[in-house]
Amino acid sequence: MTANDSSPAYCIIGLGLIGGSLMRDLAARGETVYGYNRSTSGARTAIKEGFDASDRLDKTLIRANEDHALIVLAVPMHAVGEVLDAVVEYAPNCGITDVVSVKTAVYEEIDARGLKTRYVGGHPMAGTQHSGWKASETGMFKRAAWVITYDYAAECEAAGEEIDSSWIELFKTVTRMVEKLKAEAVPALVTNHDAAVARVSHLPHVLAAALSVVGDNGGVLAQSLAAGSFKSATRVATTAPDLQRAMCESNATALVGALDEFIAELAKARDDLASETPQIKELIEAGHRTRIRLEARSGASKDSVSPVKISSRPVLRLHPGGPNWVRQLSQTEDIGGRIEIF
Amino acid sequence: MTANDSSPAYCIIGLGLIGGSLMRDLAARGETVYGYNRSTSGARTAIKEGFDASDRLDKTLIRANEDHALIVLAVPMHAVGEVLDAVVEYAPNCGITDVVSVKTAVYEEIDARGLKTRYVGGHPMAGTQHSGWKASETGMFKRAAWVITYDYAAECEAAGEEIDSSWIELFKTVTRMVEKLKAEAVPALVTNHDAAVARVSHLPHVLAAALSVVGDNGGVLAQSLAAGSFKSATRVATTAPDLQRAMCESNATALVGALDEFIAELAKARDDLASETPQIKELIEAGHRTRIRLEARSGASKDSVSPVKISSRPVLRLHPGGPNWVRQLSQTEDIGGRIEIF
After folding, report:
1. What are B270-295's pLDDT values in tens digits?
2. E strand residue ranges, B82-135
3. Matching Gene3D superfamilies, A to Z (chains A, B) (predicted)?
4. Which of B11, B37, B206, B274 could form a cystine bridge with B42, CB 3.0-4.6 A?
5. Each residue of B199-225: pLDDT tens digit?
6. Domains of chain A by range and CATH?
7. ipTM of the complex, rounded to two decimals
């Protein structure tokens, strides 16, 4: 890192919905930020809007290497391996993080290239159904959970090995970036992350697709009558299909588990409704109870009367590298909490 | 009806989310509107806000009978029979419509009391997850589909019998009420309505409940990471459980059919994801295609540059009682269209 490691340069690879929004927020704060976009037109649009963008991956990474920049991978899963090969070649000095919606598959690519000590994974739980630079916006990550993975540190602890000090610095750098974006840094191991997002992100995409199809099968009358509940539940089906497939297919094992659980719930409700006295008491009441409970656990309360939004995620103030800090990360993960570093 | 049958008095039985919003809109237009609410506190709140409300069903219906008012049933399905008994006793002169989210079950209650010639069913495809008078608001029905049933007319046609002229007047009165609310009158037979809403309204409620449960099973980390896609898809799970049960249980046959279709889609996707080369191409692409298509068929386009919102539902201008008018209703239903009367 350069002189002041709390403000490194940021090099964003992929300027789509998430990468573009990240560039906007960091630039708005006056940080040094530049990036690469595969499509020339996307890069050109960003440049026209005053951002520092390029459609040359090699040049962008060489510059990042000179700056000791933090590299943020913001490309779809299928492009991660190829980009990492270029990082190995052109930017051997740089720490790496990412914003990809699956973490095990990324970690396998990292491990295959011996990059574990240079990598802290990330995943912002934010976005819309739109994609590309044109869909990017400032403030997208405000109060959103931003997962930060710490598998390398946990592996060192388990093996009784010392954690590389440069990795600890990288962990700080990534966490500080999250704090700068006003997001909330939630620590998680990659497998736990993938199991959680299979339930709360990838499963909703599959359901949205299936519900769209079943609604469509009802013909134009059903489509004409589709209103709020249907539209809310199917909104994310309009996300670009290749992005949805990338998420679901690269997290297939966890997603199949979530689907099995979901299908079992539906099958039970179906039988209750098909019985002589049709009823759906159990599922509707359980759904209501759990959804109300969720409101209190998933970020700032909307009903707060305070002008300052208070996060409902418990916070742990952490000193990376300090005594027991990896165990503290694990404990914070267990309660879905967030960290602040000092 | 009184002198001017295009502006009858309106008597709303049940001042909850829908009934209350209806009262607000009609009152704001200067129509004569009054209503009954079972809970004294709800009625009292409406009165305090300047509305003409009562917690006495008999008195309210006697008044409606004197006014030849249009009675609008806005109570949950399980209360419909009891209210209809009171209508038979206290308001034998009045036409009846309703806003209940199932139509076959209501029509059976109507038929059991020999009220077919006095009934035109209705169902506004509008609302929120909240309930009760306090959740009611003006403008809720603007541009929403409002189903109007015409089974009695279709039955007369099929039997070669003449349609009671008072029913035709009632059909006009109900349609005009819908027009006054700036909603769009979509004709449908009760069984077709129930099959359609099983897909686009009741199924989303079941899915929201099941997804809430599966998300909750993931523990606090999953709940902490739940963001836009999960929250959109589960929003309606916060609807009062008894209202959700009333909808689903009174439309159980159609809902079981929709659930079977949905489960089959999911099971197929599950197997595709569990295969050696995990993929979910077919479902994601079909979901994307159908959801994009829906945008064009379910009301005003949000992307229109015109300041005047144009409905995307085809419109038929209809003269109730005129030649072929029942066939025209049926044709309009087949294309999910709306009617305007003259």
Report:
1. 999 999 999 999 999 999 999 998 87
2. 95-98, 122-124
3. 6-phosphogluconate dehydrogenase C-terminal like domain (1.10.3660.10), NAD(P)-binding Rossmann-like Domain (3.40.50.720)
4. B37
5. 999 999 999 999 999 999 999 999 999
6. 10-188+308-341 (3.40.50.720), 193-279 (1.10.3660.10)
7. 0.91
